[in-house]
Amino acid sequence: MDAPLKTRDLVKTFGGIRALDGVSIDVYNEKITLIIGPNGSGKTTLINVITGFYHPERGEVKFNGSNITGLPPFKIFEKGIVRTFQIPHLFKSLTVLENMLVASRNNPGEKLRKALFKNSWRRAEEHLVEKALRILELLNLDHLWDKPACTLSGGQMKLLEIGRALMADPLMVLMDEPIAGVNPRLANEIFEHLLSLRKELNLTFLIVEHRLDIALPYADYVYAMDRGKIISKGSPSEVLEDKIVARAYLGG
Ligand SMILES: Nc1ncnc2c1ncn2[C@@H]1O[C@H](COP(=O)(O)OP(=O)(O)O)[C@@H](O)[C@H]1O
Ligand SMILES: [Mg+2]
């Protein structure tokens, strides 16, 4: 299997804590790779290291064959790796559509010079609006396009956060607990959306989750973490049946 993203032997410490203690994972092309693990096992730290928010003390992150370890977050974003946050980073007073537009790579505010050339400006904007609406449709949010983000439900905010990530034309989407605090029905709905997005946009997902009940059936490949280490890997059923994983969750 082709793995565009690979980490090798990543170590990241905070004071005396080894948040990552030699983490090596492969993220397979157009698959959903899931990382599970109890709270504090290092999942968010791993995403922060991959996306350039933290520098590892040791180890390597490779994307499509090139070493991206320690590059600043915007460089990694430019390479097509886009992340979502545990708590959606939305502009609460802007509408759903406006939230999408400001997230695009060539957002309307970014290249004001273009405004001088009215026609090209309008065309660019139209193209972005069309793209935003198409993505909102995939997420069943299109009917809410003119509603302020603050009026959305928690689940809809999570979907909008995903939509914003997709405005950047990512190759790979890294998600930190996309279903945290969401009821099971909505959580399943979010994962169903991810499956159709993957098909529609040929996307690769790396998803971090604390809860394993809902997320596991949607994953193609699973890594389990505990105390900064990968303690199990394989198909969802292999990892679910692994006694080491159960023990980690029970805190043994
Ligand atoms: N910025 C930080 N400063 C200090 N300690 C941190 C920081 N980020 C994470 N940690 C510690 O690293 C460990 C792993 O945390 P984290 O990656 O957030 O785990 P998870 O996302 O699996 O819950 C925890 O012990 C946490 O307290
Ligand atoms: Mg976390």
CATH superfamily of the largest domain: P-loop containing nucleotide triphosphate hydrolases
Query: For the CA atoms, what is the radius of gyration?
Result: 19 Å
Distance between the termini: 34 Å
- Sheet with the most strands, sense and barrel status: 6 strands, mixed
CATH architecture of the largest domain: 3-Layer(aba) Sandwich
Strands side by side in the biggest sheet: 6-7-8-3-9-10
Number of helices: 8
Which stretches are low in confidence, meaning pLDDT under 50 for 5 or more residues running? none
CATH topology of the largest domain: Rossmann fold
Bound molecules: adenosine-5'-diphosphate, magnesium ion
Number of domains: 2
CATH class descriptor of the largest domain:
Alpha Beta
Order of helices and strands: EEEHEEHEHHHEHEEEHH
- Classify the helix fraction into a percent range: 25-40%
Estimate what percentage of residues fall within beta strands: 15-25%
- Please tell me what the overall shape is: globular
Q: What structural class results from the helix and strand content?
A: alpha/beta
Q: What value does the average pLDDT take?
A: 90
Strand runs, count: 10
